[in-house]
Design a protein that fits this description.
Blueprint: H1 5-23, H2 34-46, H3 50-60, H4 69-84, E1 88-95, E2 100-112, E3 116-117, E4 120-122, E5 132-139, H5 148-151, E6 159-161, H6 181-187, H7 212-224, E7 228-231, E8 237-239, E9 248-250, E10 275-278, H8 280-291, E11 296-307, E12 318-325, E13 330-340, H9 350-369, E14 376-383, H10 391-400, E15 416-421, E16 429-433, H11 441-448, E17 458-460, H12 469-473, E18 479-484, H13 489-493, H14 506-525
Parallel strand pairs: 5-6, 6-7, 7-10, 13-14, 13-15, 15-18, 16-17
Antiparallel strand pairs: 1-12, 2-3, 2-11, 4-10, 5-11, 8-9, 12-14, 16-18
Length: 540
């Protein structure tokens, strides 16, 4: 510890004492069940099955896009495992989603002026080409509706490149992010939010419907007879989203493709021009050739399949997976843990979010294996359609706990002690974000004392967003996301074709499960539920 950090830690400890006194929190010094916590550690560290779970979910069933046969098969496997461990009330809760989508075949080559196999991936919900097509590639700079006239009549049968060349910088700075002393100190500070900042929106982290100009642009492409649109993904440097921190990460490029959404999933599914994201280096080459006044031609094959949703409740395309370990004297009260089960489509969803799913499955396996007897029921939830805007967790909260818009609450709202979430890759947990619930700080501070040798040291006071704990926090429930080493999550694997098992770090995932099992079990054993923040106001 440096002299610089000692005053900060002393200040934070004084804050914990003051918080305890101010809120009159009972049971701060409530003894922990150290024998069970030791058994959790022994089973979790010595006999972990987490990597096997990740391999099944990712290698065998990935990608697990909502509404596809793959995610349905993954659910069957997952529920069989949960039942095999003796968990109770293993089930799915289905909800409406729209058309599912999966990729059948894809290949792409530049064939003129020279042959080059092109690294790329169709965007999700993209339509298909008319078999294998060969077409001229052209640049079309369409930024506003006023640009349409410049290209009218010139794009029939063409493959369009809508973006300019993007420079590809050398890799420098943070690419693999493990939290050092500086990062942990930053996580432990309370930032001052900007004036007028909108917080606690349940829509954060999701894709929104197209704006008016993108709709107009798609119609223009269709009217003009464009056969495909290719892009080169987003810029190479980004601020790490959803982490509560402000560090920047350089994306690795080099054949890593950060693929986006290519079309609607509702009644208009399949109506747009086929869309493909290319490796930036291959996209750039074609732009540079075109800039020399030469012809570029491509051979392209995109074959996709849409999976319509049926009207019957058991035929809806989206679902959450639920399983429980029943409680004893406080069985009506619940502690929830969760991670999103669905993925994007380009990789196999290993770090986003099979790692989180596997860790949460391990929590339940560990507790069941050691014969833990929690006072409160511990409930696992594996969410569907997180990638489309936290749809699964939002629907679950609406059905069981309350309506965010009206703040009309259901009886179960009073019975949930806490929800704990993982969704920031496969790095080890370094602490937990308090979500501005300062009353819980003294309790969590007591719990992490026995986890410091595993690297868990930090309580982050701030509110973070972007994943499923937001759905709970939005209705005034204690919902928490863990502070986590990002590793390559932002630079290489998040929503990319490189989100594969090889990028998962085994020791870190093993640690994740042990830490969450401690938090879940301690929450389940307390005499009192965890403290809550004041209820938010209704949105209307």
């Amino acid at each position: 510890m440096t002299m610089k950090t000692r005053p900060m830690l002393l200040t934070f400890r004084l804050l914990l004492v003051a918080t305890c006194m101010a809120f009159g929190i009972p049971g701060i010094a409530q003894p922990l069940d150290h024998s069970t916590l030791a058994a959790i550690r022994d089973e979790g560290l010595r006999r972990s099955q987490a990597m096997d779970h990740i391999s099944w979910l990712s290698d065998v069933y990935g990608p697990r896009v909502t509404g596809t046969p793959a995610i349905e098969k993954a659910a069957v496997w997952t529920m069989a495992k949960l039942r095999g461990w003796g968990l109770s009330n293993v089930r799915t809760e289905r909800f409406a989603f729209g058309h599912g989508w999966s990729l059948v075949r894809f290949h792409a080559h530049m064939v003129e002026p020279e042959v080059m196999p092109v690294i790329g991936y169709p965007k999700s919900w993209s339509s298909s080409t008319a078999g294998t097509i060969t077409a001229e590639v052209v640049r079309a700079d369409l930024q506003t509706e006023s640009d349409f006239d410049s290209y009218r009549g010139a794009l029939q049968g063409k493959i369009v490149l809508p973006q300019l060349e993007r420079p590809v910088p050398l890799l420098t700075g943070d690419v693999v992010l493990r939290m050092n002393e500086h990062g942990l100190a930053e996580a432990g500070r309370t930032p001052v939010p900007p004036v007028g900042q909108v917080r606690n929106s349940p829509n954060q982290g999701g894709n929104q419907d197209s704006l008016s100009f993108p709709d107009q642009l798609q119609q223009f492409y269709l009217d003009e007879g464009v056969v495909a649109v290719l892009d080169r993904g987003s810029d190479a440097v980004l601020v790490a989203g959803g982490s509560g921190l402000t560090h920047q990460t350089q994306r690795t490029d080099g054949g890593t493709i950060f693929v986006g959404r290519g079309g609607p999933r509702g009644s208009a599914a399949g109506s747009q021009v086929p869309a493909v994201t290319l490796a930036v280096e291959h996209y750039n080459r074609m732009v540079r050739i075109l800039d020399k006044g030469l012809t570029v031609r491509m051979e392209l094959h995109v074959e996709t399949r849409f999976h319509p949703e049926e009207n019957a409740e058991d035929a809806l395309n989206a679902f959450n997976i639920i399983a429980e370990i029943p409680g004893s004297d406080l069985a009506d009260e619940v502690v929830m843990i969760g991670a999103h089960f669905d993925t994007t489509h380009a990789g196999t969803g290993a770090t986003d979010n099979a790692a989180g799913v596997a860790a949460m499955m391990e929590v339940m396996r560990i507790l069941q294996t050691i014969g833990a007897q929690p006072r409160r029921t511990i409930r696992l939830a594996l969410w569907g359609a997180e990638e489309q805007g936290l749809l699964g967790s939002r629907e679950y909260v609406r059905r069981h706990f309350g309506n965010r818009e009206t703040m009309q609450l259901k009886p179960a709202h009073a019975l949930l002690s806490a929800y704990f979430n993982i969704d920031n890759g496969s790095g080890r947990l370094r602490g937990i974000w308090l979500q501005e619930n300062f009353a819980v700080a003294p309790i969590f501070s007591d719990w992490i004392e026995s986890l410091k040798d595993l690297g868990v040291t930090t309580l982050g006071p701030r509110r973070v967003s972007g994943t499923d704990h937001v759905s709970f926090d939005a209705v005034g429930l204690p919902g928490f996301q863990f502070i986590q080493d990002r590793l390559e999550y932002n630079s290489r694997t998040h929503h990319s074709n490189m989100d594969v098992v090889d990028r998962v770090q085994r020791e870190d995932v093993v640690q994740m499960a042990v830490v969450v099992a401690n938090f879940a079990y301690n929450t389940a054993m307390r005499d009192e539920a965890l403290p809550r923040k004041p209820l938010p106001e209704a949105q209307r």
